[in-house]
Amino acid sequence: MSIANVFNSLKRLTLNEKIGTSLIARSVSTDSPLCFQVTQFLCGEPLKKKKRLDPAIIRAREEKKKKKLEKQIRRLEKSARQSKPIDECEVPTVLLEPEEVKIRKRKIPPMTSAEVDERVWLTKDWTRYRYQQAVGDISIVERLAYSQARALHELRQESEELYQEAIQIDPAMLPFVVQGPVVTPPIPDYESPDGEYVDISKKWT
């Protein structure tokens, strides 16, 4: 029997069924059987009845949430007042050990009475010198301010225009000169580094 005759004999096994406006056509095949899959039924369900809670319970829950938020705020405020540690200013823990302290402790011989008296006299002399220097500086500043005020008063009596010009700010007293471009020029024959780097800087939150 030829292949054409086999196909012609199988044509009668074709199912043609018209349901409504759709046409379902299924041919008989020798492959694996067709397995029908049906989804589960989705039926409506009545809404669950809401439970009426006691107002005291609701108030207690709100108070609990409020206290929790206040606790978190206090924790943040406490951590905000702490300053960031500086590694350069911190003493290593190795140096604070008792054995290390004993090794690094220097034995200072006691001073004699003559050395104590000499240091006291030197301190007094230095204090007296600094006091006289401060008084002299203050007197010089006061004398210059008095002379300036007196000169301005005499100048104002002579001419109001000259007085107004004299009290103006003189920009030439603090000269400011800028030279060069505002942007750094490129470095000639500079090869930019190619690759990745690892940032090991500490981050504080």
From TrEMBL:
Keyword Ribonucleoprotein applies: yes
Subcellular location per the Swiss-Prot or TrEMBL entry: Mitochondrion
Any one cellular-component term (Gene Ontology): mitochondrial large ribosomal subunit
PANTHER family for the chain: 39S RIBOSOMAL PROTEIN L40, MITOCHONDRIAL (PTHR13359), LARGE RIBOSOMAL SUBUNIT PROTEIN ML40 (PTHR13359:SF2)
Organism: Cuerna arida
Family per similarity comment: Belongs to the mitochondrion-specific ribosomal protein mL40 family.
Alphabetized InterPro entries for the sequence: Ribosomal_mL40, Ribosomal_mL40_metazoa/plant
A Pfam family annotated for this UniProt entry: MRP-L28
Name assigned to this protein: Large ribosomal subunit protein mL40
Keyword field contains DNA damage: no
Keywords: Mitochondrion, Ribonucleoprotein, Ribosomal protein, Transit peptide
